[in-house]
Amino acid sequence: MHKNALKIGVVLLLLCALCMGMFACAPQQNSKQETAAGEVIFTDALGNTVTVHSPQRVVCTLGSFAETWYLAGGKVLGTTSDAIEDRKLDLGGSVENIGTVKQPNLEKIIALNPDFVILSADIASQVSAAETLKKAGIACAFFKVEYFQDYLAMLKILTDITGRADLYEENGLDVEKKINEIIQKVDKTKHPSILFLRAYSTGAKSKGEDNMVGVMLKDLGADNIAARYPSLLENITAEEIIKADPEYIFVATMGASDEKALAALKEMLFANKAMQALQAIKNDHYYVLDKELFHYKPNHRWAESYAFLYKTLYEEK
Amino acid sequence: MRSYTKHFMRKNNQTNTAKFGMIIAAALLLAGMVIVNMVYGSATILPSKIFKALSEKDSADFAYRIIVYIRLPRIVAAMAAGAALAVAGAVLQSVLNNALASPNIIGVNAGSGLFVVLITAFFPAHLATIPFAAFAGALAVALLIYFTAYKTGASRVTIVLAGLAVGSFFAAAIDTVLTLKPDVMISVNSFMVGGFSAVNFDVVRFALIYILIGLVLAMVLSREMNVISLGDEVAASLGVRVHILRFVLIVCASLLAGSAVSFSGLLGFIGLIVPHICRGIIGHDNRFVIPFSALAGALFVLACDFVARTAFVPYELPVGIIMSGIGGPFFIYLLFKQRRGRLYD
Amino acid sequence: MIELRGVKAGYYGEAKINDINISFHQGKISAIAGPNGCGKTTLLKTAARLLTPFEGAVYLDGTNIEQIPLKAFVRRVAVLPQTRLSVNMRVESLVMHGRFPYAGFGRKPSKEDKNAVEKAMALTNIDALRGKNIAELSGGERQRAYIAMAVAQDTEVFLLDEPMTHLDICHQIDIGHIIKELNREGKTIIMILHDLGQAMTLSDFVCVMKEGKILCYDSPQAVYEQKCLQTAFDVQCKKIEDENKNIFYTFCK
Questions:
Q1: What's the pTM value of the predicted model, to 2 decimals?
Q2: C227 and C216 housed in the same domain
Q3: pLDDT tens, B90-138?
Q4: CATH number for the domain whose boundaries are B6-337
Q5: Which of B151, B155, B298, C71 maximizes the CB count within 10 A of its CB?
Q6: Chains contacting B with at least 3 CB pairs below 8 Å?
Q7: Mutate which of A237, A258, A266 to test chain B, going by most B C-beta atoms within 10 A?
C-alpha cells in the first residue's frame, strides 16, 4: 500500500513539473506569416498569435521599442517617459507621453485610439495591461529584446508590417554585417581579461555572460573573470577580483550619468587600497559604459557598441 | 503552570558561574571564527603566512593586500554589525517589554532607507555621504517616533504604534521617490538586502566608535533594564526614572542599529531572533543577555558571512539569505525543543 | 509622615481627586476605602510619587517630596502597585530587586542586601520558595513574593494598592498577618482595600472616599459612628461584637 502511494505521488509530481515546464518555456522566437495583402500574422514573445493590418496609430510601451518601430519606418503616436524625458529620443516628431515603463497609463493609451500597441514581455504590469487593451479591441504584441538577434528578429517583423524591407536592410542586416566584420578582426589568440560591473549607489555586482554587454564581450574574445566558473551565480568576491586582476574594467551605471556622479561612483567602488592596486586602475583601463550603447538597447547602433569595445580592448594602449 | 516553559525556567535557575562560563565559551568561539575567516577565502592563506605578512607589512605582497584590505575590514564589519544589531534588538525587547521588538520597530529601516533613496535619486554626486545619511536617518526617525509617542505618555505600546505609523509614512515616501525615479530601485534593493561585499573601511571606522559607545551604554544599564521588566510602576517604585531610561535606551538602540545599517545595509533577522536565542541559552538576566547577545551576534554574522563568501567560491551569496536560512531553522528547532510549552505567554 | 495638602491630581489633564487634605498617622495601619472610581488609586499613586499632582503637594515628614532626591525617597517609601507584568525570574532575584535603591554601581549585592532579602523572605514565609520561578507560584505566593520585595526595600512607609484582591481567604489572612507584623516593627502602612470588613478590622484608621473627595479619616469606631461608609456606598452597616470581644461588620443594601 505504502509503495503504491509513493509511486503514484512521484508520477503526479513529475506530471506537474512537466506541465509547469511547458508553460514556463514560452516560445521566444517570433515567427510570422503573411497572408492577405498588407495583413501580417505572427507569434509574439508570449506565444500569442497576432494579426495586424497596416497599423497607422501605434503606441509603444518601451522607449527602445518605439525607436525600433520608428527605424522600421513606422510612426510613433505615443511612448513611455523613458524615451521622451530621459533619453529624448528622436522619433520623427512629437510623441505623446503615456506614462512610465512600470506603470503605463491605460487611459491615455486608449484615448489615443491606437490600432496596435507594442509591449514588453518582461514587465508584469504591461502583461496585465494588455488584457484590458485586448478587451477594448486593440491589437497587442509582446517583444523581448536582450541580444542583437532578438532586435534583428523584432525588426524583421516590424518591417514586414510596414512593408519597408529596405529599412530592414539598412537598420538590421547592414548592422549585422558590421558587427560580424568587427568580430572577424579579433585576434583569436588574445583573450584580454575583463571585469564587467553593474554599479549601484551602494555597491556593485559583477556580471557574467548572459546579458547584453556580457555577450558582446564574449563575442570579442574577452575573458570575463566572473564567467570563468560554471555556476548560476555571477557576483564574485572582492578577493577574487584581486586574485584575477583583470586587465580591463567596464562599469555600467544604474542612474548616475553626469561627471561628478561618475567620479563619486569610481571613488566609492575603488576606495579600498587593495582595489587601487589593480592593474586596470593603475593603467587607466577603467571605462564607464555609455548608457545609450550599453544600458538601453542600442538597436541600429549595436555595431557602435561592438566597435567601442573592440577599440578599447585591442586598439588602445 | 504549562504556559511557561520548563526549559526557560531552568535556564533562569542556572548559577551565575555557569553563565559566565557560557560567555567565555562564546568569546572563544568568536576568536576561532575570526581565525577561520582570515585563513580561508578565494585563496587559502595559512596562519604562518598571515603572521609573516602582518609583521613584514609589505603592501605589494598579495597575502598582505588580501588580509589587510579585504578580509580584516570585512571581519571587523561583520562582527561590529552583528554585535550592534543583536544588542539593539535585546535592548528594545527589554525596554518595550515586547518580544517582537527589533530595530525595525523604531524606524531604522524607514529612516535610513529614505535617506539612501533620496541621495541616490537626487544627489548622485554625493554617494560618499550615503553611510552617514543612513546613520543620521535612523537616529532622526527613532527620535521622531519617540516624541510622537511622548504626547501620549511614551509607554511601551504607544512607542510601537508610533513606530508603525511613522514607518508606514516613510515607506510611502520611499515608494513615491521610486515611482518618480525607477532607476534608483536596484540601488536601493541592494541596500535593503544588505551585505559586506562592498564594505568601505573608512565608514566602518566611523561607525565603530558609536557602536562601542552603544554597547557600553547597554551593559551599564543592564540592571535598570532588568528592573523595568517588572513593569513601569514597580520600576518607578524602586527609584527608576522610567521615561528617561526608556528614552536613553531607545537612543542607544538606534545608535547601535543606525551605525550598523550605515555600512551593512538593512540586515534583518539579527535584531529580532538572536536575542531570543541568547535568552534561550543564558536566561533573562540582562546583565548576561547583553554581552552574550553581542558575542552571539558577532559570531553568527561572521559565520554566515564566511559561508556567503566561501560556499560558492569565487561567487558570493547575499549574507542575508544565509542568515535567514541558518538562523530560521535553528530558531524553529529551539521552539520545538520546548515541546508543549510556548516561549512566551 | 505622609501628608497631602490641597492636592488635585488625575490623568491626562482630568482631575480624579480634588482638594485632598490628609495626614496619615505615623506608625499606624490606615486603610483607604471607597466606591469604584472614587480616586483611591489616584491618591495612593500621588502619595507614592508615581503621579505628579496638578495642584497642591505631598509632604514626607514636613518636606515636599518633590524636593527629596528620588533615590532617597525610594528608601523611605515603598509601593506595591496593582499592575505588574509577568516576570521570568527566581523568587530570590525578585526580592533582591527590592535592594535596587541601595545598590551601588557595582553588581555584587552587599552583606546588608543579602540580610535584608533573608529577613524579608522569612517575614513573608517564602523561604522555601526561593529557588522557584515566579511564574510557577500561585497567586497568593506571588503576592507574598512581591511584598517581600517591598519589605527588602527597608522603608518606613508601605503603600499597598489592593493587596488582597484575587486571593483566597487563607492567603488574605496570611497577608493580614504579614501587615500586622510589619506594623509591629514600626512601619506605617497605607493600603487600599475593597473588603470593608477587612478595612474596619485590620486597620487603626480608615479613610473613606467618594467622588474624588475624602469623607472622613478616623478610627473604625468613629467611622462607624459617623456613618461614613453608609454615605459613601449607600449601604446599611451593622457592627457585631461576639463573646470574645471580636468585632465584625456586615453590610447590606
A1: 0.82
A2: yes
A3: 999 998 888 888 888 888 888 888 888 888 888 877 777 888 888 888 8
A4: 1.10.3470.10
A5: B298
A6: A, C
A7: A237
